[in-house]
Specification:
CATH superfamily of the largest domain: P-loop containing nucleotide triphosphate hydrolases
Number of helices: 37
Number of strands: 25
CATH architecture of the largest domain: 3-Layer(aba) Sandwich
CATH class of the largest domain: Alpha Beta
Protein name: 3'-5' exonuclease DinG
Distance between the termini: 61 Å
Radius of gyration: 31 Å
Largest sheet: 7 strands, parallel
Helix content: 40-55%
Structural class: alpha/beta
Strand order of the largest sheet: 10-11-9-12-17-8-18
Cofactor: [4Fe-4S] cluster
GO molecular function, one term: hydrolase activity, acting on acid anhydrides, in phosphorus-containing anhydrides
EC number: 3.1.-.-
Catalytic activity: ATP + H2O = ADP + phosphate + H(+)
CATH topology of the largest domain: Rossmann fold
Length: about 950
């Protein structure tokens, strides 16, 4: 490719020139044939003040631009430098539009260059990247980028990125580039021309050994590993040589007695067919402590050991980091496979059926393009590898392997089934990594996803009860039903019914009857969920409207319109079953070609009809069936669609089910987490999980961190409590306090809430009170709902404050100086209106016991321990914990929270004195 490119970046005072925003720095590179031919770079005097936010982001201040030229003075030279080359930028439409508006403001004609957006190009050619910000890409590819958000550094990084992307195009096979070229009219920049140019030099996929082709689509060949069960090492030998082996592999090795103790307990449980429960504090190295004995036992028994986690992050860590390290330590081949549910895997046949269709939705075009490239790279076909745009995630629902056809298990489709590949790898693996939901679906719902195994290690085990309750329960919402009925369609709307009707020769009468019934079901379902939504909204008392339903009792209490609609819907679905079964019999008389499009549509229609019958059963269970010990509730989106109602049903107690369906059938189950004990004992967790009769081995290993030196707990004794004052006054007082703490710690502060309403109010007060705009303040659900993006934005700024609730109490890992202060607004008791919590407490009360001490308090302590664990993540971390809830000192139960965490010094003083203590501890030199 011999084209010339001008790679340009601007730094500006804001986003809108029409509002007076101006350029403060411009940098550009002229590139051709992989080399930089010339550079253009200068600061610009904007003749306006640079906002504090921009100064923090770019580190460009008013003094730096004071004597710089104005845009008017350099415009002519810049236009000449750009010439007629491709105009390249990271998020090109912003830079190009801003520059053109500035040129027009001073009387120049706008530029008309062809645009290349390196963001758009990266999303297609780098489909597995975690993010597409320039700094993220620079870090990922080890490109020099010393001053992010300064134009000269950004332009150089963008130039390096462009060269990398052009090389990626050269590596793609001809067939892949042909598909990308077909999508060119739908791209937002001229990247299609780059694909066309690449086509001239590309080779066919058959010439690349690692690829194979199906219907002009290149796909990476499956990797077949030879299973080698040969081991030169026994566990006993390894354990005796462990110090020497660890020192040989880990550069900064530190002996950990806690890790060895856990390793021994895991090995004992696995080899003597016992269950075990282990609490391992942060930094104990628990992952290797269970993986090492697991690999030896798997080799000895020639049967895989299953490792189950709650989060995707830990699953990926096990595969990407821990498995290679494990193989180094034991010095023999280790086979570790990640296994997920069907919907995680791409169905190649479905994708090929959608690929040629013209799309008006840009996100789908982008998703198709990214998947076409990804298929030349992936060996798993797992969506969690992909970084799809939001619309692309909806497209995935149409192309995943959730409902495969019988023909998917005929050649060539079976050979290209990523789900089958994963299953085959798992059968021959030593360790199978999966998630709690799939694990429990496999054992409790008898849906066999996992190969035969007797031993399982459950990490993040404090989530097991919650996931078990969900798996044993039922849930249904209008959107599920609406989506299903849309797929079925009618005889005059798009859908499987219309498609199949075209081929149902001589059998139109049953087709017409089914069509009429589907129309009635759709209308009645819509009415039913509208009525439920309206009923719940009228009884709203909380920000998230939730109403517990006591089955028939509540249905009887509900307006007669709901009862009538519910019964009409169920009668219609009974009619549907009768008509559908005859329709199915008639259809089976049709002579279908099993590999034809017609048969595919027939099969899809039948699958959807069966799913509608399951929905009928769910509706009956959720609204009309009585069962002791279950709780049913309805949630609505108060500001959502008029029929946005969600029905749930779960058992309040899962201990017996876990005992009977899970622990009884497995020889060894090891449960581990950093938060499993209450008052130094496992009794609460053992009872909740149904382990009491199994007498599991028990071990508690402490964290190696020196919390006494690394952390200090500060509690103001004079701030109002939320119950003593108006919520607005409380949030205003809280905002003042948070800012005063942040001024000592220079931000780097995570503030944990238990109420989103309180978070939102406090966030806005804090923003208003930060007059000098010293801090970058981020709020969960306000700045964005994406937790990963919030954490990245938080870390990016030197002085930032992050407000979080719910998911931020655990699983957030911000090591080092990026997080130096943790603030807990209120002790994390579950809200009393939570239906499952309320049902559990009701059950305990009926047994004549204390629901607060047996349920509410232990749950809150475990959550508190999770929140506390966000702060100290390495031996080098230092941080302050500020708790704004006086109950931790003043209430009879408060001491239990403090005793649940590692020993730290506690400062309990009036707020002003507390701040003085914080200053002294934070920087003793002051």
């Amino acid at each position: 490719m011999s084209n010339q490119y001008v790679v340009l970046d601007l730094e500006t005072t804001g986003h809108n020139p029409k509002n007076g925003d101006r350029i403060i720095q411009v940098a550009a590179l002229l590139m051709a044939d992989g080399e930089v031919l010339a550079r253009f770079s200068t600061f610009l005097n904007p003749k306006v003040e640079i906002p504090t936010f921009i100064e923090q982001l770019t580190h460009i201040n008013n003094e730096m631009v004071q004597h710089a030229p104005t845009f008017e003075e350099i415009a002519s030279s810049l236009v000449e430098f750009i010439g007629d080359a491709y105009f390249v930028a990271h998020n090109v439409h912003f830079d190009f539009s801003f520059l053109n508006q500035e040129l027009q403001r001073i009387g120049f004609r706008p530029l008309t260059n062809k645009l290349i957006d390196t963001v758009e190009l990266s999303r297609i050619l780098l489909p597995t990247n975690e993010g597409y910000k320039l700094q993220q890409l620079s870090t990922h590819f080890n490109m020099e980028h010393d001053n992010p958000h300064q134009a000269d550094s950004d332009a150089e990084a963008t130039g390096d990125l462009l060269l990398l992307l052009l090389d990626k195009i050269k590596d793609l096979p001809k067939e892949t580039l042909t598909w990308l070229s077909r999508f060119a009219p739908s791209y937002k920049s001229a990247i299609g021309e780059l694909f066309n140019q690449g086509l001239k030099e590309a080779v066919r996929a058959q010439e690349q050994e690692e690829l194979e082709i199906i219907q002009d689509l290149p796909i990476k060949k499956a990797v077949v590993k030879n299973v080698d069960n040969h081991t030169d090492l026994s566990y006993e030998t390894f354990y005796n040589k462990r110090e020497e082996l660890f020192k040989g592999v880990l550069k900064k090795y530190e002996s950990r007695s806690a890790q060895w103790s856990m390793m021994e307990t895991v090995y004992e449980a696995l080899t003597t067919s016992q269950h075990a429960i282990i609490e391992a504090g942060t930094g104990t190295g628990k992952t290797l402590a269970y993986l090492i004995p697991a690999i030896f036992v798997a080799k000895e028994k020639k049967q895989p050991v299953v490792v189950s986690t709650h989060t995707v992050n830990l699953q990926q860590q096990l595969i990407d980091q821990n498995a290679p390290l494990l193989e180094e330590l034991v010095s023999f081949p280790v086979s570790v496979t990640l296994l997920k549910g069907r919907h995680h895997y791409l169905n190649v046949r479905k994708f090929l059926s959608f690929l040629p269709k013209k799309e008006s939705n840009y996100d789908i075009v982008l998703a198709k393009s990214a998947i076409v490239v990804w298929l030349t790279m992936t060996t798993t076909g797992d969506i969690d590898e992909l970084n799809l745009p939001s619309g692309g995630k909806l497209f995935w629902e149409q192309i995943n392997d959730e409902q495969p056809l019988p023909i998917d298990f005929q050649e060539p489709w079976q050979r290209f089934s990523f789900y089958e590949r994963a299953q085959n790898r798992a059968k021959d693996s030593d360790i199978i990594v999966t998630n709690h939901r799939l694990l429990l679906l496999d054992v409790m719902r008898k849906q066999k996803f996992l190969p035969q195994y007797d031993s399982v290690i459950i990490d993040e085990a404090h989530h097991l009860e919650e996931i078990a309750s969900e798996q044993l329960g039922t849930q249904l919402d209008y959107f599920q039903i609406h989506h299903l009925l849309l797929k079925i369609g009618t005889n005059d709307t798009e859908g499987y019914l219309k498609d199949v009707g075209e081929y149902m020769t001589g059998r139109k009468s049953w087709f017409i009857k089914l069509d009429g019934n589907i129309r009635q079901v759709r209308a009645e379902m819509d009415d039913l969920f509208r009525l439920i939504h309206r009923y719940v909204r009228r009884s709203m008392q909380h920000e998230q409207a939730t109403t517990r339903v006591r089955k028939r009792y509540e249905v009887e209490k509900a307006p007669s319109s709901i009862k009538e609609s519910c019964l009409r819907t169920l009668f219609l679905l009974e009619d549907f079953e009768r008509i559908y079964l005859i329709f199915k019999q008639e259809g089976e008389k049709q002579q279908w070609d099993p590999v034809s499009k017609q048969y595919e549509k027939w099969h899809n229609l039948i699958a959807c009809c069966e799913e509608l019958l399951l929905i009928r059963d769910k509706l009956h269970t959720l609204l009309l069936t009585e069962k002791e010990g279950e709780v049913c509730w309805v949630e609505i989106e108060a500001k959502g669609a008029a029929n946005a109602a969600f029905l749930y049903n779960q058992p309040a107690d899962v201990s017996e089910a876990l005992a009977d369906l899970f622990f009884t059938h497995k020889k060894s189950v090891i449960l581990t987490s950093a938060t499993l004990t209450i008052k130094e004992a496992f009794d609460y967790t053992i009872e909740r999980l149904g382990l009491y009769d199994f007498q599991p081995l028990q071990l508690k290993v402490e964290s190696p961190f020196h919390y006494k030196e690394q952390a200090r707990l500060f509690i103001p004794d004079d701030l109002p409590t939320v119950n003593e004052t108006d919520l607005d006054d409380y949030c205003l007082s809280l905002a003042h306090s948070i800012l005063q703490v942040a001024r000592v710690t220079n931000g780097k502060m995570l503030v944990l809430f238990t109420s989103y309403e309180m978070l939102k109010k406090t966030f806005h007060y804090t923003k208003d009170l930060d007059f000098e705009e010293r801090f970058m303040i981020f709020g969960q659900g306000i700045s964005t709902r994406n937790r990963t993006r919030l954490v990245k934005d938080f870390v990016q700024f030197d002085q930032s404050i992050l407000f979080g609730t719910s998911s931020f109490w655990e699983g957030v890992d911000i090591p080092g100086e990026a997080l130096s202060c943790l603030a807990i607004v209120r002790l994390p008791f579950a809200p009393p209106h939570d239906p499952v919590v309320a049902a559990k407490m009701d059950r305990i009360k009926k047994l004549g016991r204390n629901a607060f001490t047996e349920q509410a308090l232990p749950d809150a302590i475990i959550r508190f321990k999770q929140g506390f664990g966000r702060l100290i993540r390495t031996k080098r971390d230092k941080g302050a914990i500020v708790i704004f809830d006086r109950r931790i000192i003043e209430s009879p139960y408060g001491k239990q929270f403090i005793k649940s965490i590692p020993e730290v010094d506690v400062v309990y003083k009036p707020f002003d004195e507390m701040i003085e203590g914080l200053v002294e501890w934070w920087d003793p030199s002051e």
